[in-house]
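User: Predict the structure for this protein chain, please.
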Amino acid sequence: MATLKEFEEALREQGMNMALALLQRLRERDRATRTIKPARRLTGQKMTPELARAILDLHASTGMTQQEIAFKVGVNQGRVNEVIKRGKWLNEDPQAPEAVARDKAKARMRGEPKTQRTATKPTVRKDRPIAARPRQSPQGQLAFGDL
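Assistant: Here is the predicted structure, written as structure tokens:
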């Protein structure tokens, strides 16, 4: 399949000036009628409990899809799903998982150093010594000690 540019070059090689003039007129007409359509969403809305309640109201009172609700309120469809299915963002609890994640993301954007988490070692069961535990070989395979 040839591109429009290749088609135009072939017309030029063949000396088809009338076809080139027609192509140019079509381009100019297209430019004159072309409009720049606005983007679906320029900036996302900040999720707030009020916005979450508005999402729930739209979901309950209309037959709109999650995508349509997202477009109407200015958030992405994933956020709408979180509100509807899991009840996220419905309260202003600063310890809620979504609020903690939001605060961490904001701190990363500001360039703040990471907060140090205390590393906890996994607990080891001490009811039996490690050597006394029976060794399990994978099923269907033979190991050297099996024969």
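The chain has a mean pLDDT of 78.
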